[in-house]
Amino acid sequence: MHNKVVAMTKTTPSPSDAVGIATDISERVARLHADAVDCDARFPIETISALRSERMLSLLVPQEFGGSGCRITVVAAAVEALGRNCASSSMVYAMHHIQIAALARHGRSAWCHDYLRAVAADELLLASATTEKGVGGDVRTSICAVETIDDEFSLVKDSPVVSYGVHADAILATARRTVESPASDQVLVVLPKATTTLEHQSPWKALGFRGTCSDGYIVQGTGTVQQILSDSYADISARTMLPTSHVLWASVWLGIATTAVDTARAFVRAAARKSPGALPPSALHLANLVTQLEEFRAMVAARIAEYETAWDDDNLASSMGFALRMNALKVSSSTMVVDIVTAALRICGIAGYLEDTPFSLGRLLRDSHGAALMVSNDRLIAASAQMLLVHKESR
User: Fold this and answer.
1) Which of 121, 136, 222, 362 has the fewest CB atoms in 10 Å of its CB?
2) What whole-number distance in Å separates Cα of residue 120 and Cα of residue 107?
3) The CATH number of 128-227 is which of 2.60.40.10, 3.40.50.720, 2.40.110.10, 2.30.130.40?
4) What are the residues whose beta carbons fall under 8 Å from the beta carbon of 108, sequence distance 6 or more?
5) Predicted confidence (pLDDT) per residue in 256-287, tens digit
6) Mean pLDDT over residues 153-181, rounded?
7) pTM to 2 decimals?
8) Topology of 15-125 in CATH?
9) Are 140 and 234 in contact (CB under 8 A)?
């Protein structure tokens, strides 16, 4: 029924252990391979394999289905830990858990429950195909449609971006509910690798996040209608996918920003050792930069805490105020990461600009500029502007 991977023998990590495991993998594995992943634009197979071997791919799978049943706070902390050493590894891990969150909260059929058990048992990696050619980047619109005959379906989607698609064990794809449905009436469908084909259309030649391997494919899948998640994609997106994306992506960028500040701190300390008793001019800039980072961290923590509450509160999760604050998190954090990395580069000077020094910031700077483009900030600001026309909450 499902695409089988290597059976796991380790127990799922507890919430108290998960962040430590992610930190260890980040330092021991992701750091070692990060430059090669970036330079070769290759999938971070070593990091993902290490996460799989420690059963870290099923953190958000509920315990009743064999997962760790962790809260989003734990996953966000694990994502940040990975982001400190390899943004591509961190982004893959974040995107995987966005799909897990959608499946766990909105997949109510017997098939979906069985698949969650398979995800936990075999540590399956999930990807998504929400973009589509011909819709102008609007993921809330689909041209392709689910075609059904009795209890079976088929789906063909031309997606310009399917991150790590060939490495995934399943892809969650959006489509119109039926061939007669309007473009905005979408569903989310689970497409396991065994019954899905990917026809390569375009390579991922990007400035940053090169290891996500976000090539374009024509995705063709078949299966039972039970693979279609129960709720509409509009509800899945508003209640789960968008807030999970914004929280976990912000955690990726917080990891990048933290490493940039750590690099600047190391540079200033090295300068201080060369002139004992004298305060390096860059030390004042470093103090300001640390303040910026702490503001960034506090903002992310506040929104994660709110999402923890919204996870169990449907009224909050579906409120306009919550959507506005999650949009603001994405826009603000994607701006702050660029500002922080750029400020760190100014502190390190030529040593940060060069690619072969201990203070090099080139990869961090390139990755940080992807933040504002992954779901365009302009699109989110426009959506928030529309909501503000009718929003009446004070916060």
Assistant:
1) 136
2) 15
3) 2.40.110.10
4) 229, 230
5) 999 999 999 999 999 998 888 778 889 999 99
6) 97
7) 0.93
8) Butyryl-Coa Dehydrogenase, subunit A; domain 1 (1.10.540)
9) yes
